[in-house]
């Protein structure tokens, strides 16, 4: 019989304001509500405390997986509008767009080189 000596590190719920660690999430939530009254919104999934309701709602998208902000060019979806806006700058900078893989390119030469990849994928061996 063999035993493996693997070390596991347990991560405890940690306060994002002061760094305190807790054995269970409920204790962290109670701590944030009591000790950090200027951060009244506490996530029930991870214990993250935030000041404003809008930031709290934005944070909740991380846990829900909801992506309400959709790119009108390629259809990619994002949880935050800021991320979509950053993504849209890429489309504005790059004028050549690949419909197959949603990549975009600044030059026609670069785009033509890229299309060879898809042509090779379609060749049946």
TrEMBL record:
Domain C2H2-type: from-to ranges: 41-68, 69-96, 96-123
Keyword presence, Cytoplasm = no
SUPFAM superfamilies documented for this protein? beta-beta-alpha zinc fingers
Q: Where is the signal peptide?
A: none
Keyword annotations of the record:
Metal-binding, Nucleus, Repeat, Zinc, Zinc-finger
User: Per the record's keyword annotation, is Lyase included, yes or no?
Assistant: no
Q: Which GO terms describe its molecular function?
A: DNA-binding transcription factor activity, RNA polymerase II-specific; RNA polymerase II cis-regulatory region sequence-specific DNA binding; zinc ion binding
Q: Which GO terms describe its cellular component?
A: nucleus
Checking PANTHER family in the record gives: CHORION TRANSCRIPTION FACTOR CF2-RELATED, ZINC FINGER PROTEIN
Family classification? Belongs to the snail C2H2-type zinc-finger protein family.
For this entry, the protein name equals C2H2-type domain-containing protein
- The organism encoding this protein is Caerostris darwini
């Amino acid at each position: 019989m063999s035993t493996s000596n693997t070390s596991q590190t347990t991560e405890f719920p940690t306060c994002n304001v002061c760094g305190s660690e807790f054995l269970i999430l409920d204790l962290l939530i109670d701590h944030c509500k009591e000790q950090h009254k200027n951060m009244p919104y506490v996530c029930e999934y991870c214990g993250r405390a935030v000041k404003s309701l809008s930031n709290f709602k934005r944070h909740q998208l991380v846990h829900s997986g909801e992506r309400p902000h959709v790119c009108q060019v390629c259809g990619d979806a994002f949880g935050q509008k800021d991320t979509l806006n950053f993504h849209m700058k890429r489309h504005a900078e790059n004028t050549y767009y690949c419909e197959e893989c949603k990549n975009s390119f600044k030059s026609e030469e670069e785009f033509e080189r890229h299309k060879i990849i898809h042509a090779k994928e379609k060749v049946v061996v």
